[in-house]
Protein backbone atom coordinates (compact mmCIF):
# COMPACT_ATOMS: atom_id res chain seq x y z
CA UNK A 1 0.00 0.00 0.00
CA UNK A 2 1.04 3.58 -0.54
CA UNK A 3 2.15 5.90 2.24
CA UNK A 4 1.45 9.32 0.68
CA UNK A 5 -1.02 10.28 -2.04
CA UNK A 6 -0.80 13.59 -3.87
CA UNK A 7 -4.19 14.82 -5.10
CA UNK A 8 -3.74 16.53 -8.46
CA UNK A 9 -7.08 18.33 -8.49
CA UNK A 10 -9.25 20.87 -6.71
CA UNK A 11 -12.78 21.44 -5.45
CA UNK A 12 -15.18 18.76 -4.31
CA UNK A 13 -13.39 15.81 -5.93
CA UNK A 14 -10.07 16.71 -4.28
CA UNK A 15 -11.74 16.79 -0.86
CA UNK A 16 -13.62 13.58 -1.69
CA UNK A 17 -10.35 11.76 -2.45
CA UNK A 18 -8.62 13.17 0.63
CA UNK A 19 -11.36 11.86 2.90
CA UNK A 20 -11.02 8.30 1.62
CA UNK A 21 -7.23 8.48 1.89
CA UNK A 22 -7.54 9.49 5.54
CA UNK A 23 -9.85 6.56 6.22
CA UNK A 24 -7.21 4.29 4.67
CA UNK A 25 -4.53 5.81 6.89
CA UNK A 26 -2.72 7.44 3.98
CA UNK A 27 -0.98 10.81 4.18
CA UNK A 28 -2.34 13.36 1.70
CA UNK A 29 -0.76 16.22 -0.21
CA UNK A 30 -3.00 18.85 -1.81
CA UNK A 31 -1.62 20.94 -4.66
CA UNK A 32 -3.30 24.26 -5.30
CA UNK A 33 -3.15 27.47 -7.27
CA UNK A 34 -2.89 30.89 -5.67
CA UNK A 35 -6.66 31.25 -6.15
CA UNK A 36 -7.30 28.15 -4.00
CA UNK A 37 -5.10 28.93 -0.98
CA UNK A 38 -8.10 28.69 1.35
CA UNK A 39 -9.82 25.76 -0.36
CA UNK A 40 -11.40 23.05 1.79
CA UNK A 41 -8.94 20.37 0.65
CA UNK A 42 -5.98 22.66 1.43
CA UNK A 43 -7.20 22.92 5.01
CA UNK A 44 -8.03 19.20 5.24
CA UNK A 45 -4.90 17.64 3.72
CA UNK A 46 -1.79 16.75 5.72
CA UNK A 47 0.31 18.99 3.48
CA UNK A 48 -0.43 21.64 0.87
CA UNK A 49 1.84 22.79 -1.95
CA UNK A 50 1.21 25.88 -4.05
CA UNK A 51 2.05 25.10 -7.69
CA UNK A 52 1.15 28.20 -9.67
CA UNK A 53 -1.19 31.09 -10.48
CA UNK A 54 -4.94 30.69 -11.08
CA UNK A 55 -4.78 29.81 -14.79
CA UNK A 56 -5.05 26.00 -15.04
CA UNK A 57 -2.27 25.76 -17.64
CA UNK A 58 0.11 27.27 -15.10
CA UNK A 59 -1.08 25.25 -12.11
CA UNK A 60 -3.35 22.20 -12.25
CA UNK A 61 -2.28 21.34 -15.81
CA UNK A 62 1.38 22.13 -15.17
CA UNK A 63 2.87 18.63 -15.20
CA UNK A 64 6.42 19.59 -14.12
CA UNK A 65 5.02 21.52 -11.14
CA UNK A 66 2.78 18.61 -10.08
CA UNK A 67 5.59 16.06 -10.39
CA UNK A 68 8.02 18.28 -8.48
CA UNK A 69 5.44 18.73 -5.71
CA UNK A 70 5.01 14.95 -5.51
CA UNK A 71 8.76 14.31 -5.34
CA UNK A 72 9.36 17.04 -2.76
CA UNK A 73 6.50 15.80 -0.57
CA UNK A 74 7.55 12.15 -0.87
CA UNK A 75 4.33 11.03 -2.54
CA UNK A 76 4.41 7.52 -3.95
CA UNK A 77 1.05 7.83 -5.72
CA UNK A 78 -1.00 10.54 -7.46
CA UNK A 79 -4.79 10.59 -7.68
CA UNK A 80 -5.89 12.82 -10.57
CA UNK A 81 -9.64 13.02 -9.78
CA UNK A 82 -11.62 13.94 -12.90
CA UNK A 83 -10.86 16.63 -15.47
CA UNK A 84 -7.46 18.34 -15.64
CA UNK A 85 -4.78 15.59 -15.99
CA UNK A 86 -7.02 12.61 -15.20
CA UNK A 87 -7.11 11.30 -18.79
CA UNK A 88 -3.70 12.49 -19.95
CA UNK A 89 -1.61 9.43 -20.94
CA UNK A 90 1.56 11.53 -21.08
CA UNK A 91 1.07 12.53 -17.45
CA UNK A 92 0.47 8.89 -16.45
CA UNK A 93 3.67 7.86 -18.22
CA UNK A 94 5.68 10.66 -16.61
CA UNK A 95 4.42 9.49 -13.21
CA UNK A 96 5.68 5.99 -14.00
CA UNK A 97 9.03 7.38 -15.18
CA UNK A 98 9.43 8.99 -11.75
CA UNK A 99 8.39 5.83 -9.86
CA UNK A 100 5.11 7.39 -8.81
CA UNK A 101 1.94 5.31 -9.20
CA UNK A 102 -0.76 6.97 -11.27
CA UNK A 103 -4.11 5.93 -9.77
CA UNK A 104 -5.81 5.07 -13.02
CA UNK A 105 -5.46 2.79 -16.06
CA UNK A 106 -2.17 2.14 -17.90
CA UNK A 107 -1.00 5.02 -20.15
CA UNK A 108 -1.31 2.99 -23.35
CA UNK A 109 -4.90 2.03 -22.55
CA UNK A 110 -5.74 5.64 -21.73
CA UNK A 111 -4.15 6.72 -25.01
CA UNK A 112 -6.39 4.39 -27.00
CA UNK A 113 -9.58 5.24 -25.15
CA UNK A 114 -8.85 8.97 -25.37
CA UNK A 115 -9.40 8.77 -29.11
CA UNK A 116 -13.13 8.12 -29.38
CA UNK A 117 -12.85 6.75 -32.92
CA UNK A 118 -10.19 4.25 -31.85
CA UNK A 119 -12.28 3.32 -28.81
CA UNK A 120 -15.24 2.57 -31.10
CA UNK A 121 -13.05 0.31 -33.21
CA UNK A 122 -11.67 -1.53 -30.17
CA UNK A 123 -15.10 -2.06 -28.66
CA UNK A 124 -16.48 -3.30 -31.98
CA UNK A 125 -13.66 -5.87 -32.04
CA UNK A 126 -14.62 -6.83 -28.48
CA UNK A 127 -18.17 -7.55 -29.65
CA UNK A 128 -19.95 -4.48 -28.33
CA UNK A 129 -22.73 -3.01 -30.50
CA UNK A 130 -22.17 0.38 -32.13
CA UNK A 131 -24.38 2.92 -33.84
CA UNK A 132 -23.87 3.09 -37.62
CA UNK A 133 -21.00 5.39 -38.55
CA UNK A 134 -17.22 5.45 -38.85
CA UNK A 135 -14.91 3.38 -36.70
CA UNK A 136 -11.94 5.50 -37.73
CA UNK A 137 -11.41 9.27 -38.09
CA UNK A 138 -12.99 10.89 -41.14
CA UNK A 139 -10.04 12.52 -42.88
CA UNK A 140 -11.58 14.60 -45.66
CA UNK A 141 -14.93 15.89 -46.87
CA UNK A 142 -15.34 13.22 -49.55
CA UNK A 143 -14.85 10.58 -46.87
CA UNK A 144 -17.37 12.40 -44.68
CA UNK A 145 -19.95 12.41 -47.47
CA UNK A 146 -19.44 8.68 -48.10
CA UNK A 147 -19.83 7.84 -44.41
CA UNK A 148 -22.87 10.12 -44.13
CA UNK A 149 -24.54 8.43 -47.11
CA UNK A 150 -24.02 5.02 -45.54
CA UNK A 151 -25.05 6.18 -42.05
CA UNK A 152 -28.08 8.25 -42.95
CA UNK A 153 -29.44 11.45 -41.41
CA UNK A 154 -29.64 12.80 -38.81
CA UNK A 155 -26.04 12.16 -37.84
CA UNK A 156 -23.54 13.65 -35.43
CA UNK A 157 -19.94 14.70 -36.05
CA UNK A 158 -17.75 14.32 -32.96
CA UNK A 159 -14.20 15.30 -32.07
CA UNK A 160 -12.12 12.14 -31.71
CA UNK A 161 -10.29 13.66 -28.74
CA UNK A 162 -13.44 15.33 -27.40
CA UNK A 163 -15.01 15.47 -23.99
CA UNK A 164 -17.20 17.64 -21.77
CA UNK A 165 -19.87 17.99 -24.46
CA UNK A 166 -17.62 20.04 -26.75
CA UNK A 167 -16.73 19.30 -30.36
CA UNK A 168 -20.14 17.81 -31.20
CA UNK A 169 -22.33 18.89 -34.13
CA UNK A 170 -25.68 17.39 -35.11
CA UNK A 171 -26.40 17.40 -38.85
CA UNK A 172 -29.94 16.83 -40.11
CA UNK A 173 -29.61 17.93 -43.74
CA UNK A 174 -26.96 16.84 -46.29
CA UNK A 175 -26.64 20.48 -47.36
CA UNK A 176 -25.22 21.30 -43.90
CA UNK A 177 -22.61 18.55 -43.83
CA UNK A 178 -19.66 20.46 -45.32
CA UNK A 179 -20.02 23.43 -42.97
CA UNK A 180 -20.57 21.17 -39.93
CA UNK A 181 -17.53 19.04 -40.79
CA UNK A 182 -15.31 22.13 -41.16
CA UNK A 183 -16.64 23.81 -38.01
CA UNK A 184 -16.29 20.70 -35.85
CA UNK A 185 -12.75 20.09 -37.03
CA UNK A 186 -11.84 23.68 -36.23
CA UNK A 187 -13.40 23.45 -32.77
CA UNK A 188 -11.64 20.14 -32.13
CA UNK A 189 -8.29 21.65 -33.04
CA UNK A 190 -8.82 24.78 -30.95
CA UNK A 191 -10.16 23.01 -27.86
CA UNK A 192 -8.34 19.68 -27.88
CA UNK A 193 -5.35 20.29 -30.15
CA UNK A 194 -6.53 17.47 -32.41
CA UNK A 195 -8.68 18.13 -35.48
CA UNK A 196 -9.69 14.50 -36.09
CA UNK A 197 -13.43 13.77 -36.11
CA UNK A 198 -15.70 10.79 -36.65
CA UNK A 199 -19.35 10.32 -37.58
CA UNK A 200 -22.15 8.27 -36.07
CA UNK A 201 -25.92 8.03 -36.35
CA UNK A 202 -27.82 10.54 -34.21
CA UNK A 203 -30.74 9.31 -32.12
CA UNK A 204 -33.33 12.01 -31.47
CA UNK A 205 -34.90 10.41 -28.38
CA UNK A 206 -32.11 8.31 -26.90
CA UNK A 207 -31.46 7.44 -23.29
CA UNK A 208 -27.90 7.97 -22.05
CA UNK A 209 -27.08 4.90 -19.96
CA UNK A 210 -23.63 4.35 -18.51
CA UNK A 211 -22.15 1.41 -16.61
CA UNK A 212 -19.60 1.61 -13.80
CA UNK A 213 -16.91 -1.05 -14.00
CA UNK A 214 -14.13 -2.06 -11.63
CA UNK A 215 -11.19 -4.13 -12.91
CA UNK A 216 -8.05 -5.21 -11.06
CA UNK A 217 -4.56 -5.97 -12.36
CA UNK A 218 -5.18 -9.72 -12.21
CA UNK A 219 -7.85 -10.02 -14.90
CA UNK A 220 -10.87 -9.77 -12.60
CA UNK A 221 -13.71 -7.40 -13.42
CA UNK A 222 -17.19 -6.55 -12.15
CA UNK A 223 -19.82 -3.99 -13.02
CA UNK A 224 -21.44 -1.87 -10.34
CA UNK A 225 -24.70 -1.23 -12.12
CA UNK A 226 -25.90 1.44 -14.49
CA UNK A 227 -26.71 5.13 -14.24
CA UNK A 228 -29.16 7.18 -16.29
CA UNK A 229 -27.60 10.48 -17.39
CA UNK A 230 -30.17 11.50 -19.99
CA UNK A 231 -31.00 14.94 -18.55
CA UNK A 232 -28.43 17.11 -20.33
CA UNK A 233 -27.89 20.54 -21.80
CA UNK A 234 -25.43 21.00 -24.62
CA UNK A 235 -24.41 17.35 -24.15
CA UNK A 236 -23.41 17.99 -20.53
CA UNK A 237 -25.13 16.20 -17.68
CA UNK A 238 -27.36 17.92 -15.12
CA UNK A 239 -29.13 15.06 -13.33
CA UNK A 240 -27.96 11.47 -12.87
CA UNK A 241 -29.62 8.53 -11.19
CA UNK A 242 -29.12 4.88 -10.32
CA UNK A 243 -30.59 2.56 -11.26
CA UNK A 244 -31.85 3.67 -14.67
CA UNK A 245 -35.63 3.80 -14.61
CA UNK A 246 -37.57 1.37 -16.79
CA UNK A 247 -34.86 -1.18 -17.58
CA UNK A 248 -35.78 -4.83 -17.26
CA UNK A 249 -33.58 -7.24 -15.26
CA UNK A 250 -32.48 -8.78 -18.55
CA UNK A 251 -31.46 -5.39 -19.95
CA UNK A 252 -29.52 -4.54 -16.78
CA UNK A 253 -27.66 -7.83 -16.88
CA UNK A 254 -26.94 -7.48 -20.60
CA UNK A 255 -25.51 -3.97 -20.50
CA UNK A 256 -23.46 -4.82 -17.41
CA UNK A 257 -21.97 -7.86 -19.11
CA UNK A 258 -21.17 -5.82 -22.21
CA UNK A 259 -19.35 -3.22 -20.11
CA UNK A 260 -17.14 -5.75 -18.32
CA UNK A 261 -16.49 -7.54 -21.60
CA UNK A 262 -15.30 -4.30 -23.20
CA UNK A 263 -13.15 -3.20 -20.27
CA UNK A 264 -11.36 -6.56 -20.05
CA UNK A 265 -10.82 -6.68 -23.80
CA UNK A 266 -8.88 -3.39 -23.87
CA UNK A 267 -6.76 -4.23 -20.80
CA UNK A 268 -8.40 -1.67 -18.55
CA UNK A 269 -7.64 -1.53 -14.82
CA UNK A 270 -9.22 0.55 -12.08
CA UNK A 271 -12.56 2.34 -12.00
CA UNK A 272 -14.01 3.29 -15.38
CA UNK A 273 -17.30 4.00 -17.11
CA UNK A 274 -18.64 2.76 -20.43
CA UNK A 275 -21.30 5.00 -21.92
CA UNK A 276 -24.12 3.70 -24.10
CA UNK A 277 -27.09 5.11 -25.96
CA UNK A 278 -30.36 3.21 -25.70
CA UNK A 279 -32.89 3.68 -28.51
CA UNK A 280 -36.66 3.64 -28.17
CA UNK A 281 -36.72 -0.10 -28.85
CA UNK A 282 -34.42 -0.76 -25.87
CA UNK A 283 -31.25 -1.62 -27.87
CA UNK A 284 -27.86 -0.43 -26.60
CA UNK A 285 -24.95 1.02 -28.58
CA UNK A 286 -21.51 1.83 -27.17
CA UNK A 287 -20.46 5.51 -27.32
CA UNK A 288 -17.24 5.96 -25.36
CA UNK A 289 -15.33 4.97 -22.24
CA UNK A 290 -14.22 7.37 -19.53
CA UNK A 291 -10.92 6.27 -18.03
CA UNK A 292 -11.35 7.93 -14.63
CA UNK A 293 -13.71 8.43 -11.73
CA UNK A 294 -16.96 10.06 -12.92
CA UNK A 295 -18.53 13.21 -11.49
CA UNK A 296 -21.68 11.18 -10.86
CA UNK A 297 -20.01 8.28 -9.05
CA UNK A 298 -21.83 9.06 -5.74
CA UNK A 299 -25.15 7.62 -6.97
CA UNK A 300 -23.43 4.28 -7.59
CA UNK A 301 -21.87 4.43 -4.13
CA UNK A 302 -25.27 5.13 -2.59
CA UNK A 303 -26.97 2.08 -4.13
CA UNK A 304 -24.02 -0.33 -3.70
CA UNK A 305 -22.51 0.81 -0.41
CA UNK A 306 -19.05 0.77 -2.01
CA UNK A 307 -16.41 3.51 -1.85
CA UNK A 308 -15.20 3.79 -5.46
CA UNK A 309 -12.18 5.93 -4.60
CA UNK A 310 -11.10 3.30 -2.09
CA UNK A 311 -11.45 0.63 -4.76
CA UNK A 312 -9.40 2.77 -7.16
CA UNK A 313 -6.58 3.08 -4.66
CA UNK A 314 -6.57 -0.63 -3.79
CA UNK A 315 -6.45 -1.65 -7.45
CA UNK A 316 -3.63 0.80 -8.14
CA UNK A 317 -1.73 -0.71 -5.21
CA UNK A 318 -1.98 -4.13 -6.89
CA UNK A 319 -4.65 -5.62 -4.65
CA UNK A 320 -7.02 -8.18 -6.21
CA UNK A 321 -10.71 -7.35 -6.16
CA UNK A 322 -12.34 -8.19 -2.89
CA UNK A 323 -15.73 -8.70 -4.53
CA UNK A 324 -17.20 -10.88 -7.25
CA UNK A 325 -20.24 -10.05 -9.34
CA UNK A 326 -22.67 -11.95 -7.07
CA UNK A 327 -21.38 -9.89 -4.12
CA UNK A 328 -22.55 -6.62 -5.68
CA UNK A 329 -25.97 -5.88 -4.20
CA UNK A 330 -28.09 -2.93 -5.30
CA UNK A 331 -30.39 -1.29 -2.77
CA UNK A 332 -32.87 1.53 -3.31
CA UNK A 333 -32.54 4.47 -5.70
CA UNK A 334 -30.25 7.48 -5.78
CA UNK A 335 -30.35 10.81 -7.65
CA UNK A 336 -27.68 13.48 -8.08
CA UNK A 337 -28.25 17.11 -9.06
CA UNK A 338 -25.25 19.17 -10.16
CA UNK A 339 -25.68 22.67 -8.77
CA UNK A 340 -23.64 25.00 -10.96
CA UNK A 341 -22.89 28.71 -10.61
CA UNK A 342 -24.54 29.40 -13.95
CA UNK A 343 -27.54 31.36 -15.24
CA UNK A 344 -29.84 29.06 -17.28
CA UNK A 345 -31.76 32.07 -18.65
CA UNK A 346 -28.53 33.42 -20.19
CA UNK A 347 -27.41 30.28 -22.00
CA UNK A 348 -25.79 28.91 -18.83
CA UNK A 349 -23.36 31.79 -18.57
CA UNK A 350 -21.00 31.15 -15.59
CA UNK A 351 -21.59 33.49 -12.66
CA UNK A 352 -18.41 33.63 -10.57
CA UNK A 353 -18.31 35.70 -7.39
CA UNK A 354 -18.35 35.76 -3.61
CA UNK A 355 -20.66 33.30 -1.85
CA UNK A 356 -22.09 35.46 0.91
CA UNK A 357 -24.63 32.72 1.68
CA UNK A 358 -24.07 29.00 1.16
CA UNK A 359 -26.41 26.82 3.21
CA UNK A 360 -26.72 23.22 2.09
CA UNK A 361 -29.50 20.75 2.96
CA UNK A 362 -29.20 17.65 5.11
CA UNK A 363 -31.24 14.90 6.71
CA UNK A 364 -31.61 11.14 6.20
CA UNK A 365 -30.36 9.77 2.91
CA UNK A 366 -28.69 13.04 1.87
CA UNK A 367 -25.08 13.50 0.75
CA UNK A 368 -23.50 16.83 -0.21
CA UNK A 369 -20.19 16.84 -2.10
CA UNK A 370 -18.76 20.35 -2.27
CA UNK A 371 -15.56 22.28 -1.89
CA UNK A 372 -17.28 25.56 -0.95
CA UNK A 373 -18.55 27.33 2.15
CA UNK A 374 -20.01 30.76 2.89
CA UNK A 375 -17.34 33.39 2.29
CA UNK A 376 -15.61 31.42 -0.46
CA UNK A 377 -15.14 32.79 -3.95
CA UNK A 378 -16.27 30.99 -7.11
CA UNK A 379 -13.36 31.63 -9.46
CA UNK A 380 -13.77 32.49 -13.13
CA UNK A 381 -10.82 30.24 -13.91
CA UNK A 382 -12.45 26.89 -13.08
CA UNK A 383 -15.49 24.71 -13.55
CA UNK A 384 -18.71 26.27 -12.25
CA UNK A 385 -19.77 23.23 -10.16
CA UNK A 386 -20.75 24.42 -6.67
CA UNK A 387 -22.07 21.21 -5.17
CA UNK A 388 -23.46 17.80 -5.92
CA UNK A 389 -26.63 17.09 -3.99
CA UNK A 390 -27.21 13.34 -3.77
CA UNK A 391 -30.22 11.63 -2.25
CA UNK A 392 -31.01 7.98 -1.56
CA UNK A 393 -34.33 6.35 -0.70
CA UNK A 394 -35.82 2.84 -0.87
CA UNK A 395 -37.43 3.68 -4.24
CA UNK A 396 -37.19 6.30 -6.99
CA UNK A 397 -40.36 8.17 -6.06
CA UNK A 398 -39.09 8.83 -2.55
CA UNK A 399 -35.59 9.67 -3.80
CA UNK A 400 -37.13 12.32 -6.08
CA UNK A 401 -39.26 13.69 -3.25
CA UNK A 402 -36.22 13.86 -1.01
CA UNK A 403 -34.25 15.69 -3.69
CA UNK A 404 -37.08 18.16 -4.18
CA UNK A 405 -37.04 18.87 -0.45
CA UNK A 406 -33.25 19.34 -0.52
CA UNK A 407 -33.44 21.78 -3.40
CA UNK A 408 -36.00 23.85 -1.53
CA UNK A 409 -33.61 24.03 1.46
CA UNK A 410 -30.54 25.03 -0.55
CA UNK A 411 -29.60 28.68 -0.15
CA UNK A 412 -26.91 30.25 -2.32
CA UNK A 413 -26.43 33.99 -2.64
CA UNK A 414 -23.75 36.49 -3.52
CA UNK A 415 -23.16 39.49 -5.77
CA UNK A 416 -23.90 38.36 -9.32
CA UNK A 417 -24.03 34.65 -8.43
CA UNK A 418 -26.87 32.67 -10.02
CA UNK A 419 -27.37 28.90 -9.86
CA UNK A 420 -29.21 26.07 -11.58
CA UNK A 421 -31.28 25.29 -8.46
CA UNK A 422 -34.62 26.44 -9.87
CA UNK A 423 -34.04 24.60 -13.14
CA UNK A 424 -33.41 21.40 -11.19
CA UNK A 425 -36.62 21.96 -9.25
CA UNK A 426 -38.56 22.31 -12.50
CA UNK A 427 -36.93 19.21 -13.99
CA UNK A 428 -37.86 17.10 -10.98
CA UNK A 429 -41.41 18.50 -10.96
CA UNK A 430 -42.01 17.72 -14.63
CA UNK A 431 -44.26 14.82 -15.49
CA UNK A 432 -41.82 13.70 -18.19
CA UNK A 433 -39.05 13.17 -15.64
CA UNK A 434 -41.24 11.73 -12.91
CA UNK A 435 -42.69 9.16 -15.30
CA UNK A 436 -39.24 8.17 -16.56
CA UNK A 437 -39.93 9.27 -20.15
CA UNK A 438 -37.03 11.75 -20.32
CA UNK A 439 -34.30 11.43 -22.96
CA UNK A 440 -31.23 13.32 -24.15
CA UNK A 441 -33.38 15.88 -26.00
CA UNK A 442 -35.68 16.41 -23.02
CA UNK A 443 -34.49 19.98 -22.32
CA UNK A 444 -34.38 21.10 -25.94
CA UNK A 445 -38.04 21.23 -26.89
CA UNK A 446 -40.63 23.95 -26.38
CA UNK A 447 -42.39 23.51 -23.06
CA UNK A 448 -39.39 21.85 -21.44
CA UNK A 449 -38.14 23.19 -18.08
CA UNK A 450 -35.14 24.78 -19.79
CA UNK A 451 -37.31 26.46 -22.44
CA UNK A 452 -39.61 27.83 -19.78
CA UNK A 453 -36.66 29.13 -17.77
CA UNK A 454 -35.28 30.98 -20.78
CA UNK A 455 -38.60 32.57 -21.76
CA UNK A 456 -39.39 33.54 -18.18
CA UNK A 457 -35.99 35.11 -17.58
CA UNK A 458 -35.02 32.40 -15.15
CA UNK A 459 -38.20 32.65 -13.04
CA UNK A 460 -40.99 30.10 -13.24
Automatic annotation (TrEMBL):
Reactions catalysed, as given in the entry: N(6)-biotinyl-L-lysyl-[protein] + hydrogencarbonate + ATP = N(6)-carboxybiotinyl-L-lysyl-[protein] + ADP + phosphate + H(+)
Role summary: This protein is a component of the acetyl coenzyme A carboxylase complex; first, biotin carboxylase catalyzes the carboxylation of the carrier protein and then the transcarboxylase transfers the carboxyl group to form malonyl-CoA.
> Which InterPro entries does its entry note?
ACC_Biotin_Carboxylase, ATP-grasp, BC-like_N, Biotin_carboxylation_dom, Biotin_COase_C, CPAse_ATP-bd, PreATP-grasp_dom_sf, Rudment_hybrid_motif
User: Which controlled-vocabulary keywords does the entry list?
Assistant: ATP-binding, Ligase, Nucleotide-binding
EC numbers listed for it are 6.3.4.14
UniProt-recorded name of the protein: biotin carboxylase
> One Pfam family of this protein, by short name?
CPSase_L_D2
UniProt cross-references to SUPFAM superfamilies, sorted A to Z: Glutathione synthetase ATP-binding domain-like (SSF56059), PreATP-grasp domain (SSF52440), Rudiment single hybrid motif (SSF51246)
Which residue ranges does the record assign to the Biotin carboxylation domain? 1-448
Gene name for this UniProt entry: accC
Q: Answer yes or no on keyword Ligase.
A: yes
| Span of domain ATP-grasp | 120-317
